Amino acid sequence: MKNKLCQNLESTGTVMWLITDFIWMYGFIKTAAILTIPTFLLLTFACINFRKGKKSELLSLTASEFWFIMNMCWIFSEIVNKENYLLCAKISFLFACIFVYLSFISAKKENVLTDFKRLKIK
Prior knowledge:
Blueprint: H1 4-25, H2 29-48, H3 55-80, H4 83-110, E1 114-116, E2 119-121
Antiparallel strand pairs: 1-2
Helix pairs in contact: 1-2, 1-3, 2-3, 3-4
């Protein structure tokens, strides 16, 4: 099980992520870009502060981080209209998928439930 600080950072980061996506969806791209910074920091600190728990939980947390990096790069690609950021988003998506897969494999070896954004997976 994740420690309390990690859980709080991840939950707050998830809420910030939803707010960022909402603002982005409604066309306030620069505001969304600014909000990516605290959201990225919250999710990064959640990974750094992960102390106890299963390897599968850390892997799913890392997958979430890469998934958010994908969103970040995508937002920035819309601001500067450069393909480099979109390529970065695609690469981040690939890493997120790899970490999700590794989390599933690790959870199966641990023979426990693991969570990926509040979804329990066995």
